[in-house]
Design a protein that fits this description.
Blueprint lengths: L8 H18 L31 H4 L1 H7 L3 E2 L9 E4 L3 E6 L2 E3 L2 E3 L2 E7 L6 E5 L4
Parallel strand pairs: 1-2
Antiparallel strand pairs: 2-3, 3-6, 4-5, 6-7
Length: 130
């Protein structure tokens, strides 16, 4: 025969506080809660660079979806500011944000990909001058 022993109210309050504490501090911190520039005690983890293969297809690579997940905004003209992209039939432009990678800072850069109009395949890279 098993007897259950009632726990004092203080034990239940302590257990509830511990659970609330765990949920409060174990919750993931969204990137939107950090400032644009990390402080001295902050760190950020980013994935490896995404490489666009020659002759790849924009749809198969899901380039618009990747950029939108990273907070890029689609515009209906050539991008004028970092964080914007344009997807046309003959060119795919994106204005890459400034990044720190491979031990150095890389400035924001406008990148254009020439596309095959019929298949959406990447034919080459277009410079910022057009």
């Amino acid at each position: 025969m098993t007897h259950s022993i009632p726990l004092p109210a203080a034990v239940w309050r302590l257990a509830g506080t511990a659970v609330a504490f765990a949920f409060t501090f174990a919750a993931p911190v969204g990137a939107g809660e950090l400032g644009e520039e990390p402080g001295r005690n902050e760190s950020r983890v980013w994935s490896a660079a995404f490489e666009v293969p020659p002759a790849g297809r924009v749809a198969a690579l899901a380039l618009p979806e990747r950029l939108e997940r990273q907070g890029y905004v689609r515009v209906h003209r050539r991008p004028a500011a970092p964080g914007e992209y344009f997807h046309g039939h003959e060119v795919f432009w994106f204005y890459r944000r400034a990044v720190y990678a491979r031990g150095r800072a890389w400035p924001a850069t406008l990148v254009g990909l020439d596309l095959d109009r019929e298949q959406g395949r990447i034919r080459g890279r277009r410079g910022a001058d057009g």
